[in-house]
Amino acid sequence: MDNRVRDEAAQWFVRLQDGPLSAQERQRFDAWRRSQPAHQYEIDVLQGLWSATDLLPKARLQALGDAPTERLGRRALLRYAVAASVVAVAVGLGAYSGLGQPKPYNAEFSTRLGEHRQVTLPDGSVMDLNSRSVVAVRYEKSRRGVELKQGEAMFSVQHDAERPFVVAAGAGQVTVTGTRFDVRREADQTRVAVEAGTVKVQGRASDHIVTLTAGRGTHVDPQGQVAAAYAVNPEELTAWRSGKLVFNNATLVDVAREVSRYREQPLRVSTAAVGNLRLTSVFKSSDTDALLKALPHILPVALRTLPDGSQEIISR
């Protein structure tokens, strides 16, 4: 968890104990609390600590916060403990009341056509969702679980050796304790690329594990078979985060698949020969029409509109 979030939560909580908030303060607090799940989580933890002070002897509270032995009220004790370390107090009380245990967390997030969305999870990990993506999150005591139901997501995972971060996608799953990596789920495979750190990729129906480090990737087929690690360009693969489509000697089959993520109707290729043509270029993901207009000027192809409104790349 980001220490900044804990500090902000502590400041707000102490202010709440001092008396009613003004209308302006209440508006600011509510905006802060709702902006990230981690903010509400930390406030809940502090509320639990506050309530638990009634259950423990004053001497124990003073020892937890290494507080001076003068007469202290509940508010002063809490202020001192927060200033010393919210984490230390939570761990100390956890031995008596279980408050040190992480709370369960369940949520689902999605993006529409052309939408990108960033989500901060309760542990401070961040997900960047690509267009047309659906992710379900389930945090438990000993495991941080995510299911990529559709689309693509970039994960920046906070390190926690006690609670691995596991992403399930299609017939594969990715396990980490802290790193940055991208997972894309497609109909015929799940692709994984690592930008920083180390991840372990495993097929759901196999004990075979492929370990990836920065600049390495793999894919898992529908049967759960994991390919050997190979070199990737993470910046190129995650260029969508900055609104770009980067193609480096990509086949038109791959180009059509990528472009389809940003269009109402899919883009297809007419034959295997057309699909094997290769493209190297950069376009804006928000303007795929520009890519389609440019394509016949780059390669010996043309565009044909089909009865259902979709488009097909054909030979010319």
Describe the structure.
The protein is α+β, with helices and mostly antiparallel strands and 316 residues long. It has helices spanning 3-17, 23-35, 37-52, 58-65, 74-97, 234-237, 252-260, 272-275, 288-298, and strands at residues 105-110, 117-120, 126-129, 134-139, 144-156, 165-169, 172-176, 180-185, 190-196, 198-203, 209-213, 216-220, 230-231, 244-251, 267-269, 278-284, 301-305, 311-315. The protein has 3 domains: 3-97, no CATH class; 105-233, Jelly Rolls (Sandwich); 243-315, Phage tail protein beta-alpha-beta fold, CATH 3.55.50.30. It has 9 helices and 18 strands. The strands form 3 sheets. Strands 1, 2, 3, 4, 5, 6, 7, 8, 9, 10, 11, 12 and 13 form a 13-stranded mixed β-sheet that branches. A 3-stranded mixed β-sheet has the order 15-18-17. A two-stranded antiparallel ribbon has the order 14-16. A hairpin with a 5-residue loop joins strand 2 and strand 3. The longest helix is centred in the first third of the chain and has 24 residues, at 74-97. The termini are far apart.
